[in-house]
Amino acid sequence: MSEKPEKLACEQAIKMILEYLDNELTEHDHVAMNGHFETCRSCFSRMEFEKMLKDKISALPAKKAPDSLRNKIKKVTGKF
Asked: What is the spatial distance between Cα 58 and Cα 50, in angstroms, rounded to a whole number?
């Protein structure tokens, strides 16, 4: 028998929204978030806003970083 997920406070839920949207939560936490969204309109609206923003950013065309930036990153990290 599965254990009942804990109730999340809004502060906890807000901190986990991006991980929720990226499917990076454990099954237990995902279920807890779903339960919280069912009862908290404020957090549900915040999640919907973050989802819309993430979708809009993902739809933007990718641009190549300027060579000067790429060189600075390579100098600092040794990668690129």
From this structure: 12
